[in-house]
Amino acid sequence: MKLDKQKIFITGSHGMLGSNIIKYFKKKKYEFIGTHRSKNKTNYKKNEFYLDLTKKNKVKFFIKKFNPKIVIHTAGLVNLSLCQKNPNLSKIHNI
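The structure corresponding to this sequence follows.
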């Protein structure tokens, strides 16, 4: 599949998968926007923003503001023990 240079929205930009996808898109000179859960200002990079994906209205606002053509969702709760103990929390963060 050939991608044109349209804006790509990547969740979980500080995670292992998301950060590697961003490295790929940077090399290919694609326009992208990444989101992460870190509120620490020192972790911010160009085109990457804090966004709490559990806040539906904020996600809608973000999507309207940046108008991405492609969404790649890599954010999620990866603590297996926590997911098993609290399936509802897992569902909220992974779906």
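The chain has a mean pLDDT of 85.
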